[in-house]
Amino acid sequence: MNEQQKKKTMNVAFLIYDQVEALDLNGPLDVFIKADAIAAGSYHCYTIGKTKDAVFMEANTMSVIPTYDLKTAPQPDMIVIPGANPDRVVEYLEDDDFQNTVIQWIKDQYYNGTIVFTVCTGSMHLSKTGILDHHEITTHSMMLDALEQHNTESAVKRGVRFIDQGQLITTAGITAGIDAALYLVGKHHGPELADTIAKIFEYQQQKFKY
């Protein structure tokens, strides 16, 4: 990445929806927030929902209010799609309203050049979009078979923490989202920044190849 790209603030939109998995969302979010705190102007992070109404996180333990809705959000450079309980994700796949609004918005952004970064079962949300076609992809170990069944044009990989396909990044389960976020910070701004964040987290990150 050249110096001009490094200086550009990246708009990172975090999708939230009913029953979203807390660590899928908050792990990567905190990585990018810490990166911006250390390297000011590197990332502008915000949440986005179908509407600005509060939604419940997994098991209804807390409600969160998105910063923006689909119509008012700043143009994202990257969208982070956290997962949810496998049964809930399958329900969303069959929810025409969710598919025709939230998922269609993501699809439109992707084909306009926006990076899509799915965490855990978040990759399953894209199974009807064509975004995953002809890519290597992954998800939580509990959903690898389902991901393969729903995405016959993709190569589903097992035993990996995350896969970087350029405009598409997919991860394995839950904490793998932290690994991928640290990797992306290192890819965008150098491994020293990623290492600093991992030390702040007291997190045992794997060594990445950029």
UniProtKB/TrEMBL annotation:
GO biological process, alphabetically ordered: regulation of DNA-templated transcription
Q: Which InterPro entries match?
A: Class_I_gatase-like, DJ-1/PfpI, INH-QAR
> In terms of domain of life, where is this protein from?
Bacteria
Any one Pfam family match given in the protein's UniProt record, by short name: DJ-1_PfpI
Q: Domain (DJ-1/PfpI): give its ranges.
A: 11-184
From the Swiss-Prot or TrEMBL record, give the protein name: DJ-1/PfpI family protein
Q: What is the species of this protein?
A: Chryseobacterium contaminans
